[in-house]
Amino acid sequence: MISTRLHPDKQSAAQAIAREMADLIRLRSESGKATVLGLATGSTPLPLYAELIRLHREEGLSFRSVVTFNLDEYEGLAPAHPQSYRFFMEANLFRHLDIPAANIHVPDGLAADADGHCAAYERAIRAAGGIDLQILGIGRTGHIGFNEPPSPADSRTRRVHLDEVTRQDNSVFFGDVAQVPHGALTMGVATILEARRVALLAFGSAKAAIVARAVKETPSADCPATWLQRHPDCVFHLDAAAAERL
Ligand code: PGA
User: Fold this and answer.
1) Quick check: CB of 107 below 6 Å from ligand 1?
2) In which band, very low, low, confident or very high, does the pLDDT at 232 lie, cut at 50, 70 and 90?
3) Is residue 183 lining ligand 1, measured as CB closer than 6 Å?
4) Which of 20, 42, 180, 214 ranks highest by number of CB atoms within 10 Å?
């Protein structure tokens, strides 16, 4: 089931979700347990990551007991490539925290055996105990992670072909659409649905139409975010513009 939570602006949303994450991390670490977070890239989670860094610096929130799995990575980009998601995560979050490097997982866009790498990624999530809280954005195609339409509910971590709409949207980071890779590795829909809690963030009017589809349409591979309706604890954190068609 998808529930929606309206926030005055994206900063307020970031504060609320960061607080939820901090509470989870503290609660679990008090009983000696790790917290497994599923993380996303793109513009949307940036205020959230800034707030997590602030909580670490100013309120002593430690990430030593946190294990992370990122949703996806472009195929063919090295970790040091400025547009790789590994680079994005290091620059915008990890290098500012006390998270042990061994606890960080991002799919390897250069994996020689991509299928084997994806299968190992699934095993690593399971070995960590599964994802406690998954952060998601949503693309205008209805993708979650890089699960472009059509992505079935039982899809797992795998190689995918990026939709041209997505390549256009993401070209702002590359400067030129020709530079945007055509392929990626992404967690599957089933992988995402297994997370115990899901928080999807969407802000601005450009997301209003796809947010409405995700919430209202009958779940199908044609709009992969609709599969979230089958999740028992999925919250869409929205501003008024993103919620205007609900
Ligand atoms: P954005 O991307 O945060 O840059 O809008 C979201 C997504 O494609 O999942």
Assistant:
1) no
2) very high
3) no
4) 214
